[in-house]
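Student: I would love a firmer grasp of how sequence relates to backbone shape in proteins. Thank you; the sequence and its tokens follow:
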Amino acid sequence: MGVDQIISNIKFFTPTAELKELTILQYIENNEDTTQKELAEVVGSAPSMINVYITDLESNGYILRDYISPKTIKYKITYEGIKRKNYLIITYLHELLRLYKIAKENVEKFLEDLENKGCIKILLYGAGEVAKTILSVIRDRQNYKLNIIGIIDDDEHKEDTELFGYRIITRFDIGKYDYDAIVITSYTYEDRIRERLEEIGYVGDRIVRFFG
């Protein structure tokens, strides 16, 4: 996934001027025939602002404009531009890793609490981003006791597929498994999932809400 794709999916912070600069440099490096309108869509800024960024990048020696015709311009990243892009990538990655560390610590504490309660054999309910994050953290842990024995999801298109090597099942298959807890890993459908579990007889303290 390129930076241009990442920036369009950011939810937790406003893209800074530096991130927009990084996005423009990388996009130009891969797309010399791009237009200011296209760059505006990638960065999420007005075309007039893109012109300001382009002018600044050019004045700093990071890009060159090649006028093919009065209406056609090719943008070329320079050696200094590549150096600047790589510096911005490292800085951006460093900040993301700091945020990831904070998030990972919270997930690890949740998993440790499960283990301390004797919940070792776990079913996850919800094969979405939360389940992916939990599985990623488990994969990175050392000496962990947790055993994810399956993932439940109500999307029939996911049935009998896998997520990170774990089989996705329906809630009607729960009875086939020996488990200590069902962890609800959906934020949007958390209450609805608990209701569905109660409808088929799964109640009590073996149902754990990740967000609860």
Observations:
- DSSP finds seven helices and eight strands in the chain.
- The chain has a mean pLDDT of 88.
